[in-house]
Amino acid sequence: MVIPRRCNFTQMGRYGNRGEQCCRQTAERSVNWLEMNMWLSAFAFKEGKGRNAIVIDPSFIKKSGKQTPYVGTFWSGCAGAVKHGLEILGIGVIDVDLHECMMLKAVQTTLEKGEEKKEMSLYDWYAKVLEDDKVRLQRICKVLVADSAFSKRPFIDRVMKMGFHVVSRLRHDAALFYTWDGKPTGKPDRPRVKGDKIDVRNIDMSKVEKLELEETSGKAYALKAWCKSLHRVVSLVIHELPNGVRRLYFATDENMSGRDVVEYYTTRFQEEFCFRDAKQFLGLTDCQARDKRKLDSAFNSSFTALNVAKIMCKEPGTSIGRLKAQMVNAYYAQRIIDVFEKNPNTPLNKESINEIFSFDAEAA
User: Fold this and answer.
1) Where does the Transposase IS4-like domain start and stop, copy by copy (predicted)?
2) Closest among 130, 177, 121, 131 to 154, alpha carbons compared
3) What is the pLDDT of residue 325?
């Protein structure tokens, strides 16, 4: 947080108490980032009501060179195109009532392009990452929230076998059917599970529950529906926006209320802000090392520093940018005091020191 520009090993040696080589060697050590960030998230969410969920989302990391392990072409949502670099899978935890997200772990995508077609798909690899840490993640909760790219049957089935329930979003043209509520025929066939097809532009109001959503505009309708692509009954919410666009949110837990489905999914976007703040203020994309261990340390230390900064920003009106500006100013002020051997606590110096701390913080 006290490094004003790029956060790399050279800058750490310049601004820290240890040398550059020491920082490089320390980054090669193994650290249990998940347990550390789970403790930080529990401390940050102690005022919540316990409505938590695990969130996942991949993020593109720009990286130059060709010798970095698993460097390649990945989709960049910001650029809207495929670009050369790295990709990480961010795993976080959200609190629906506090409307906040804390990052737990970042894992670099280590799937080669050849492997993606032969052995496993990219979404199989994402599921494998969750499976490796499922025991510790399920200590927090068993609800997994992901964007619409993850609403594929192979991924959903594999994650549900681990014990998770998934909240996500379907395509606008997904094939959906009302659940069958007729009486059994008594014939020796498989029981009927789906009824008429759902027309999202002409909903049968007798089979849905209208939701009153204060946070979002538009109309929302909740019901249980049979999803053809997932081959299962889901708790569905049809959200009709004022401009006529319809969004389809779902949860694999049939007993989850429609309001919870909407609140869980909309809170997922807080993870996007974690990526934004880590890239803008905490040097998530600054490390240009070619060692996978050092890259893993750089990604996870950036998110851990972000979690600590969020806990420090609990005061209203304090942002990550304002906090970073104050910490940079405090660092420079302390360096000046140490060099000139001045006492900052004297009445003459105290006012000037406070002015230095707040310099540039207002603009941030």
Assistant:
1) 142-307
2) 121
3) 83
